[in-house]
């Protein structure tokens, strides 16, 4: 059902149109993270439409424990539940299981862990993850994988990646079966595989070759931005992206800063997601073309300028730094909302500009100009 | 500068147009409370325009301690600071001083207290309250009064009301002086006096007569909804409203439930404010024509209906009870925002309907129909 149409390459950077049953995504794209079916910071799907969001990402683990994927299915799937008719990607739950949950036990079948909400024991393996994501009815489901830390020992990573490959086959089989069921929410649900291998280029490459053979709808690079340096991350991308299919989406999971995203695009990535814009927004850290500002800083007390001059977001078109700083200091939710809206708009706009630059064959110059701006620091 | 044009009376209920330098308010009106220059629940002034808010109320005490009224003045006044060009009413700070602040000492000059933010010692009397409100540049300033509890002894209330009268003269004098200063934010700032007297009708009436002689821009009834029964409140309104000028706004401070507001209107009140819609919204309590719902209730888990069928608010036009319940349970700010928007819309709409009913001479029937609906409980 999905069609990935490559529109333009510019060096390794690529810009494409990815058509799904929930509409078309222009890449490169930044996915806005709505963990429990809502973007933190009081941002609604109506707001997402306004700030240029093309695709939303929700977390399978969180939705499984609350409200429960069966509830979401009964409500007609996640699209109807959160009133969003454009694409949704769900992660597999794996990352949260390995990072949030208590007392996990990893076996060949899957993982046993305690819910962080009520402590109840939950088992999740490839089949369970696919079933939950099928109940959610997302546009794109992610394969259930283990995400070893980038600092893990080589011997552990070898074993882990082999298991992730076996799990991937089970994911594919179960997703095929679920999509053909009569009561499925989204019979056209797509499946992306995930490349792992920590910071060992040879493991990454052999794993990339292995999963590419499964001919999935897209491929992600997981396990980065979890402890390694930016240079190590870029190095892994340099090694592995060439081994992922050019004619399918390439997704760099959980990355990252505006600079990380520009570097990822330059290496051939076209899907990104990260909690930075929303999490930082809730703490008064906001992005501008001249780097980021901490609105708690006293120098903004009487600053009547918007967060960024010329920005078209709902915060900048109406409210001053001084006002938003006051809201943050007074712990008013509106402050967090305005900062989050600005930051998401900033990220969405950054990748839109990158897209345009690629399509016009001037990506390198664009990236250089942007990175110099971020490093310049605030003007005036 | 202000003009109160009575459009229609229906029994004691009145509907008017109150024209100020910041635009015209149609009464009866419900003022939406934005304590620190923002409505709690991540509601912005842009949202207020959308949900039919005519006039916003902010709290002098809170803005004085943070960000400071001098800061607001330097930013061009509260209207510019919060980006709201319609009327704003500021309270006097008195109520908060008597209810929030520590170690208060009441003297003839005013009150000494500790800030609830940083503990610093602050003195506020009639002149200070007028100066702060002048710095904020609100459309309507409220007189600085003492608000004795409705359960206070008669002898205490007698003394307190006499002092409030002396303070009112000082408020009027200072406001006249401030309005004529060259650097004032709003040279047309209005002043409303406040009637006190706990639940002693004779004290209320003699105080009403006394303050009416000062020929202020409007009159409020303070010190109700602070411990007495609803019947006692209505009884006081029955006694005192006839002694307040018919050709000026009558404002019942801090009241109340939808039923309280309908009863207040029926007794001649035309301005109201209350934190109920926003505070209750943040706790998942939402209003409907059939009474209020607690969205935490398990019966809404799979309820695909909006909070209220037919409601035109930003929550009901797009999201289900089941979704908003999930957000509330997951402690997502968006849940609080949607419930708050619905509740404020509900209140704004209720008084708009009351206005129409008065202007069409059918207020008694309207009130009866509404009160029966609220008492009916949820349908289905």
Under the CATH scheme, the architecture of the largest domain in chain A is: Alpha-Beta Barrel
Low-confidence stretches of chain A: none
Structural class of the secondary structure composition of chain A? alpha/beta
CATH fold group of the largest domain in chain A: TIM Barrel
Specify the number of helices of chain A.
14
Q: What is the fourth-level CATH superfamily of the largest domain in chain A?
A: Queuine tRNA-ribosyltransferase-like
Oligomer: homodimer
Biggest beta-sheet profile of chain A: 8 strands, parallel, barrel
What is the number of strand segments of chain A? Answer: 16
The neighbouring-strand order within the major sheet of chain A is 4-5-6-10-11-12-13-14
Name the chain pair with the biggest interface and residue counts per chain.
Answer: A-B, 41 and 41 residues
| Number of separate domains of chain A | 2
User: Radius of gyration of chain A, Cα only, in angstroms?
Assistant: 20 Å
Helix content of chain A: 40-55%
Mean pLDDT of chain A: 96
CATH class of the largest domain in chain A: Alpha Beta
Cα end-to-end separation of chain A: 51 Å
Q: Which term fits the overall shape of chain A?
A: globular
Strand fraction of chain A equals 15-25%
User: What are the secondary-structure elements of chain A, in order, as H or E?
Assistant: EEEEHEHHHEHEEEHEHEHEHEHEHEEHHH
Summarize the structure.
Two copies of one chain form a homodimer. Chain A is built from 14 helices and 16 strands.
């Amino acid at each position: 059902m999905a069609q990935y149409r490559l529109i333009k390459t510019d060096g390794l950077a690529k810009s494409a149109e990815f058509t799904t049953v929930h509409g078309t995504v222009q890449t490169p794209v930044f996915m806005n993270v709505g963990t429990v079916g809502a973007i933190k910071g009081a941002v609604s799907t109506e707001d997402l439409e306004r700030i240029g969001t093309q695709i939303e990402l929700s977390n399978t683990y969180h939705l499984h424990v609350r409200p429960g994927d069966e509830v979401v299915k009964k409500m007609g799937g996640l699209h109807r539940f959160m009133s969003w008719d454009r694409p949704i990607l769900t992660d597999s739950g794996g990352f949260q299981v390995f990072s949030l949950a208590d007392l996990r036990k990893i076996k060949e079948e899957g993982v046993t862990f305690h819910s962080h909400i009520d402590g109840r024991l939950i088992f999740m393996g490839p089949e369970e993850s696919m079933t939950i994501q099928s109940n959610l009815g997302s546009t794109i489901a992610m394969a259930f994988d283990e995400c070893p830390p980038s600092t893990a020992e080589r011997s552990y990573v070898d074993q882990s990646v082999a298991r992730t490959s076996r799990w991937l086959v089970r994911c594919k089989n179960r997703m095929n079966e679920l999509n053909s069921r009569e009561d499925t929410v989204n019979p056209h649900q797509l499946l992306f595989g995930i490349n792992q291998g920590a910071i060992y280029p040879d493991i990454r490459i052999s794993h990339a070759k292995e999963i590419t053979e499964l001919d999935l709808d897209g491929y992600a690079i997981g396990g980065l931005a979890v402890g390694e340096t930016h240079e190590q991350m870029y190095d892994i991308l340099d090694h592995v992206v060439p081994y992922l299919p050019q004619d399918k989406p390439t997704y760099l999971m959980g990355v990252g800063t505006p600079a990380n995203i520009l570097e990822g695009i330059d290496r051939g990535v076209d899907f990104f997601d990260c909690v930075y814009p929303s999490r930082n927004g809730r703490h008064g850290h906001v992005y501008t073309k001249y780097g980021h500002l901490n609105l708690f800083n006293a120098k903004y007390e009487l600053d009547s300028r918007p967060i960024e001059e010329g920005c078209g977001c709902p915060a900048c078109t109406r409210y001053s730094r001084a006002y938003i700083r006051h809201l943050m200091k007074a712990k008013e939710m509106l402050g967090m909302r305005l900062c989050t809206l600005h930051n998401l708009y900033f990220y969405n706009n950054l990748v839109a500009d990158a897209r345009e630059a690629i399509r016009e064959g001037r990506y390198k110059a664009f990236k250089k100009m942007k990175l110099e701006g971020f490093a310049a620091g605030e003007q005036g």
